[in-house]
Amino acid sequence: MIGRLNHVAIAVPDLDAACAQYKNTLGAKVGAPQDEPDHGVTVVFVELPNTKIEFLYPLGENSPIQGFLDKNPSGGIHHICYEVDDIIVARDHLKASGARVLGTGEPKIGAHGKPVLFLHPKDFTGTLVELEQA
Ligand code: CO
């Protein structure tokens, strides 16, 4: 059911430092920061030949990333995103299999302007999984 790895999201405590490291040390193509007030994050996409890295940095108060950074002050992998052809079909299949979909269970528009859903990390080997309709 799942398709390509769309991105790996890394929560970072210092966005400028993370961008500089990926650009200068790793030689990656690093995009411009985008504020996502609806999601409480500033994101930066790093383009790799076969996938993307998404830096997440807290935006505003009550950012969903802040608690993660409090527990992981150096930053860390926050979630992985797999592509699906039809997010409603995928969601209904997963729910029928007993997996928990976070939030209302209705897809939200994610950072790429496409519908996304998140699955409970306890149901997926301790990893927060994002599904994006490709
Ligand atoms: Co993501």
State the domain count.
Answer: 1
Overall, the morphology is globular
CATH class placement: Alpha Beta
Outline the low-pLDDT stretches: none
Derived from helix and strand composition plus strand pairing, the structural class reads alpha+beta
End-to-end gap: 12 Å
Q: Let me know the average pLDDT.
A: 95
* Annotated CATH topology: 2,3-Dihydroxybiphenyl 1,2-Dioxygenase, domain 1
Strands, count: 9
Order of helices and strands: EHEEEEHEHEEE
**Biggest beta sheet summary:** 9 strands, mixed
Percent strand equals: 35-45%
Bound molecules: cobalt (II) ion
Assigned CATH architecture:
Roll
Subunit organisation of the chains: single chain
List keywords for this structure.
9-stranded mixed beta sheet; binds cobalt (II) ion; 2,3-Dihydroxybiphenyl 1,2-Dioxygenase, domain 1; single chain; 134 residues
Question: Describe it for me?
Answer:
The chain is α+β, with helices and mostly antiparallel strands and 134 residues long. The chain has a single domain, classed as 2,3-Dihydroxybiphenyl 1,2-Dioxygenase, domain 1. It is 20% helix and 35% strand. The protein contains 3 helices and 9 strands, in the order E-H-E-E-E-E-H-E-H-E-E-E. The chain has helices at residues 15-25, 66-71, 87-96, and strands at residues 5-11, 29-30, 34-36, 41-47, 52-58, 76-84, 108-109, 115-119, 129-133. Strands 1, 2, 3, 4, 5, 6, 7, 8 and 9 form a 9-stranded mixed sheet that branches. Strand 3 (34-36) and strand 4 (41-47) form a beta hairpin. The chain is globular and about 45 Å long. The protein starts with a strand and ends with a strand. The site of cobalt (II) ion has 6 residues, from strand 1 and strand 6.
